[in-house]
Amino acid sequence: MTTTPGRRRLRPTKIAAMGLLLLAILEVVVLIAVGRAIGAWPTFLLILASSLLGLWIIRHEGSKAFRAFQSAAQSGRMPAREIADGTLVLAGGLLLTAPGFITDVIGLLLVLPFTRPVARNLLTAAITSRIVAQTDGFTTDPRVTGGPADAAFPGAGGPQGARRSESSDEVVEGEIIDDDPPSGAY
Predict the structure, then answer these.
(1) CB 138 within 8 A of CB 123
(2) Looking at CB atoms within 10 Å, which of 92, 112, 139, 164 has the fewest?
(3) How many other C-beta atoms can be found within 10 angstroms of the C-beta atom of residue 43?
(4) How many whole angstroms separate alpha carbon 35 and alpha carbon 21?
(5) What pTM does this model have?
(6) pLDDT tens string 27-79
(7) Is-contact 79 90, C-beta < 8 A?
(8) Is 5 exposed, middle or buried (0-12, 13-18, 19+ CB in 10 A)?
(9) What is the 3-state secondary structure (H, E, C) of the chain?
(10) What's the average model confidence in pLDDT over 11-31?
């Protein structure tokens, strides 16, 4: 990837670091504003109560999400929803334990049963777009070549490996060996 002189691309880690710094500054501003409005001790008690609520939610809702995960896995179905719910409950509970009102609001939105589906859909969309972005250039269509696998392994025919030419009359002889005994052989 080439960049034009004078323009630098921000890395995701730098963006995350700047976002966390901005969040910390906003949290301090909100804490000061709430402290001025209701007093220092009530503000401290609110922060303490939200942290205790976060710990309780992690324990209660987390165990509920884990039981749902186990139930889905035992029934033989993919527990994607349960994994997402468990992740959201853990993240929301951890945000509630962090001191600050902004993280408390975000944490509550992640753990409340009626707002969690919206958060789950946003999480699914973010993961899906990330996967699509990372797999861009790979194809499963045998008619399409020129992707990264073709550049790395010329003649391999893409991610699926070597393919037989449609104009080839080459025959490969072989023998099928079946290790399983025929049914009724016992």
Answers:
(1) no
(2) 164
(3) 19
(4) 21
(5) 0.62
(6) 999 999 999 999 999 999 999 999 998 889 888 888 888 898 889 888 888 88
(7) no
(8) exposed
(9) CCCCCCCCCCCHHHHHHHHHHHHHHHHHHHHHHHHHHHCHHHHHHHHHHHHHHHHHHHHHHHHHHHHHHHHHHHCCCCCHHHHHHHHHHHHHHHHHHCCCHHHHHHHHHHHCCCCHHHHHHHHHHHHHHHHHHHCCCCCCCCCCCCCHHHHHCCCCCCCCCCCCCCCCCCCCCCCCCCCCCCCCCC
(10) 92
pLDDT above 90 covers a percentage of the chain that reads: 27
Question: In terms of Cα–Cα distance, which of 106, 109, 102, 107 is closest to 53?
Answer: 107
Among 133, 116, 100, 81, which Cα is nearest to 29's? 100
Tokens representing 164 are: 């037989």
**Which amino acid is residue 186, in one-letter code?**
Y
Question: First and final CA of the chain: distance in angstroms?
Answer: 64
pLDDT, the chain, mean: 79
Q: Which residues neighbour 149 within 8 Å (Cβ) at sequence distance 6 or greater?
A: 138, 156, 158, 159
Q: What is the mean pLDDT of residues 4-19?
A: 79
Distance, in Å, from the CA atom of 100 to the CA atom of 97, rounded to the nearest integer, reads: 9
